[in-house]
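Propose amino acids for all 487 sites.
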């Protein structure tokens, strides 16, 4: 029965993604599709792999008593997410292309503050963008050297993989320090969206610089093996690269599928090579990744992923559910709402532990800081707070928000566009992880990126004087007649 429901979760989730995307690139990387696929991995594929194993343990514990409840939580989350998504009307036009118009901020109309920022950012040269983004990564480097102790040696320690020494060096660093490189990626993504919407497709050299900035921004979190920053940055860059309607509505091709699988393979492999103990002596992250993929093969990498802590939310819910409401009380909103505020405060400033930590204390006798740190996913958080009703309601709300993202993203500008770009890229980590802490990370990135955009606005060339290299030729910007929008 449990595996039947798990199979249902897989088939339903894949059907929802197929219907919502209709084979279009943009809708496949949108929050609804990404979130649904993550839920399928947690509540569909994982139970199919582990439920039948007699010796399967979760942190040394048999959690089979809660399998049924956990797989039903997943079925409810996937179903309600789809209900919420289709409850909200779509604004796709009859020919499934966006009704794009020349932006008002290039037409001489009275500018709002958001349009003024868009106009300024569209006049920023690729060199100025690279300078600001490199500055953000350098700021991270200097802060790590200054705050991490050990001088420049802390960087080589991190390059060698996670260890007790590297963990001690970054202990208690504020989230805003980790967010600096991510802000570089989001600044570049925002710039690309604005330029391509305002003027036209970037030329090849500008695209290479854009992807170079993205790769540079991924370096610091890759050193730490921290996908909480890597995955949102990658999705934001892909969203920006596919923002124009022609690319957003383009069909998924075999080449794009192959490229996506390559990226997912790398991301799925990182947990197995990020610690110093998992690498051969002298190996850096890239060497370790290549060795791991060669040793495990494509099938082994993904089998390990679906059995790993990346999808352990299924087991965590199965562990907690038998005692929920008796030995473990319902949170009644502490996990869903209160922890959002608590996650922004230093641990020493709060007398009562976060609800996520309280559940860990009730089940393991220790908090996440002690090294045992499973997370329940957003569905588990809602279930621990309000039971099945909470899962259904929060999933419906998420579905509505994901549809609203698709309706609004291509019609927004200024601060709203930045907020939607960040919100559209974070479900990949927020859905499966501790979403209150992910919201705090997203807020820090938003603040830093907004500050970076203010700097870009200062560096922008005067109206009608800027030049962008667009599709291989120089195109003056600042007048409506020069605007080229994707057809």
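Proposal:
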């Amino acid at each position: 029965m449990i595996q039947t429901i798990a199979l249902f979760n897989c088939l339903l989730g894949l059907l929802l993604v197929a219907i919502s995307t209709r084979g279009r690139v943009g809708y496949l990387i949108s929050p609804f599709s990404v979130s649904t696929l993550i839920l399928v991995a947690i509540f569909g594929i994982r139970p199919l792999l582990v439920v039948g194993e007699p010796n399967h343990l979760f942190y040394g514990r048999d959690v089979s008593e809660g399998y049924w409840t956990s797989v039903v939580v997943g079925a409810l989350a996937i179903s309600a997410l789809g209900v919420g998504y289709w409850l909200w009307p779509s604004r796709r036009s009859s020919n499934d292309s966006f009704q794009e118009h020349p932006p008002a901020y290039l037409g001489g109309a009275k500018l709002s503050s958001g349009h003024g920022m868009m106009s300024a950012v569209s006049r920023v040269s690729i060199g100025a963008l690279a300078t600001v983004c490199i500055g953000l990564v350098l700021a991270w480097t200097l802060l790590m050297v200054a705050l991490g102790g050990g001088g420049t040696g802390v960087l080589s320690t991190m390059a060698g993989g996670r260890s007790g020494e590297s963990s001690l060096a970054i202990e208690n660093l504020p989230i805003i320090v980790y967010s600096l490189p991510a802000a570089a990626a989001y600044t570049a993504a925002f710039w690309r969206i604005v330029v391509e919407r305002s003027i036209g497709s970037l030329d090849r050299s500008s695209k290479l610089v854009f992807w170079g900035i993205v790769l540079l921004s991924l370096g610091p979190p890759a050193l730490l093996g921290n996908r909480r920053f890597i995955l949102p940055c990658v999705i934001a860059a892909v969203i920006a690269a596919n923002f124009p309607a022609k690319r957003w509505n383009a069909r998924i091709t075999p080449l794009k599928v192959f490229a996506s699988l390559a990226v997912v393979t790398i991301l799925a492999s990182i947990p197995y090579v990020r610690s110093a103990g998992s690498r051969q002596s002298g190996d850096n992250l890239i060497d370790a990744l290549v060795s791991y993929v060669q040793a495990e093969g494509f099938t082994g990498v993904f089998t390990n992923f679906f059995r790993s802590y990346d999808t352990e939310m299924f087991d965590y819910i199965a562990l907690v559910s038998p005692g929920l409401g008796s030995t473990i009380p319902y949170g009644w909103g502490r996990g869903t709402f209160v922890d959002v505020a608590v996650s922004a405060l230093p641990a020493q400033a709060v007398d009562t532990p976060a609800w996520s930590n309280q559940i860990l204390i009730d089940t393991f006798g220790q908090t996440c800081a002690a090294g045992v740190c499973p997370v329940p996913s957003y569905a588990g958080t809602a279930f621990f707070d309000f039971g099945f009703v909470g899962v259904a309601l929060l999933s419906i709300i998420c579905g509505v928000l994901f549809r609203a993202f698709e309706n609004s993203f291509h019609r927004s500008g200024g601060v709203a566009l930045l907020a939607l770009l960040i919100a559209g890229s974070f479900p990949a980590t927020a859905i499966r992880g501790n979403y209150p802490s992910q919201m705090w990370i997203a807020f820090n990135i938003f603040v830093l990126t907004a500050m970076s955009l203010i700097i870009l606005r200062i560096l922008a060339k005067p109206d009608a004087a800027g030049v962008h290299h667009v599709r291989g030729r120089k195109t003056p910007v600042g007048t409506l007649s020069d605007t080229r929008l994707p057809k």
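The longest helix spans residues 377-408. The two ends are 50 Å apart (CA to CA).
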